[in-house]
Write a structure and sequence with these properties.
The chain has one domain: TerB-like (Orthogonal Bundle), CATH 1.10.3680. It is 44% helix and 7% strand. Helix 1 packs parallel to helix 3. The mean pLDDT is 77.
């Protein structure tokens, strides 16, 4: 993981820039998440500098994600722990299911015959005043026609 830490830092910084700007303590949140993943009190100096100098316009997501295509299961586990840390940090997520999603298979270098992506999980800070709608499921009788 340590050899790919700069790429993970870039991916997190890109997510922080998703709304086109950095606000509040987003850089510090990225640093905190990375320290948690490394179980360290400080980040390597090059990673800290990379976070400060991150250029969202010059970032190539495809190149960054392709570095993880052949990752070992232990590294993938650490990345899942990073996602858990993102949620534990109080960020929100949004699921997105574009169709088709085959582009993810090629971007991530995954085997087409074994794996199939089905979901994108977008993570960030909620917009000010954002609320989760109280959506109730329709009663079964409204959506099912029981013809025999």
């Amino acid at each position: 993981m340590k050899d790919r830490l700069p790429l993970v830092a870039d991916l997190l910084m890109e997510a922080a820039h998703a709304d086109g700007r950095l606000e509040g303590d987003e850089k510090e949140a990225v640093r905190r998440l990375l320290r948690e993943v490394l179980d360290a009190h400080t980040l390597p100096m090059d990673v800290d500098f990379r976070i400060d100098e991150f250029d969202a316009k010059g970032f190539d997501r495809g190149a960054a994600t392709s570095a993880f295509a052949g990752a070992a299961p232990e590294l993938k586990k650490r990345l899942l722990e990073l996602i858990a840390a993102v949620h534990a940090a109080g960020l929100v997520s949004l699921t997105h299911t574009p169709s088709p999603m085959g582009f993810l298979t090629s971007i991530l270098g995954r085997p087409k015959d074994i794996e199939r992506p089905f979901l994108l999980l977008v993570v960030g800070h909620p917009a000010e005043g954002c609320v989760v709608p109280d959506i109730a499921r329709k009663p079964l009788a409204e959506i099912v026609d029981w013809r025999v």
